[in-house]
Amino acid sequence: MKICNYLEDIVREELEKVLADIKDICKCDKCKLDMTAWALNRLPAQYVVTPKGRIYTKLKEENMQVKVDIMIALTKAILSVNKNPQH
C-alpha cells in the first residue's frame, strides 16, 4: 500500500481533456507539470491509502462543486503558466 493524493489523477485527466480543445498553448511536459502543480496547490488534497478510500473519493468527485473547483483551478493554471512558461 502507498498513500496518494487522488486529485493528482483527476487533475491530470481533466488537464489533458481541456488542453485538447485549446490551441496556441504550450503542451510540453514541463508546462503540463507546472499546470498540474499550480492547480493541485490550490485544491484541497484528497489522500487515500486503500481501495475503499479510492472508491469513497471517486464518489465524492461526482459532486458538482468539486468538478467546478477543479475546472476553475485548471483554467487559472493554464492561463498562469501560458503567461510565464518556465521551459
Describe it for me?
It is a single chain. The chain is mainly alpha-helical. It is built from 4 helices and 2 strands; from the N terminus they run βααβαα. The protein has a two-stranded antiparallel sheet with strand order 1-2. α1 crosses α2. The longest helix is centred in the C-terminal third of the chain and has 20 residues.
**Rg estimate, integer Å:** 14 Å
Element-level helix/strand string: EHHEHH
> Distance between termini?
34 Å
The major beta sheet can be summarized as: 2 strands, antiparallel
Percent in strands:
under 5%
DSSP strand tally: 2
Search tags:
2 strands, 87 residues, elongated, 5% strand, single chain, 67% helix, two-stranded antiparallel sheet, 4 helices, mainly alpha
Question: Secondary-structure blueprint of this entry?
Answer:
Elements: E1 4-5, H1 6-20, H2 29-40, E2 47-48, H3 51-61, H4 64-83
Antiparallel strand pairs: 1-2
Helix pairs in contact: 1-2, 2-4
Summary of the model, kept short:
This protein is mainly alpha-helical and 87 residues long. Helices cover 67% and strands 5% of the residues.
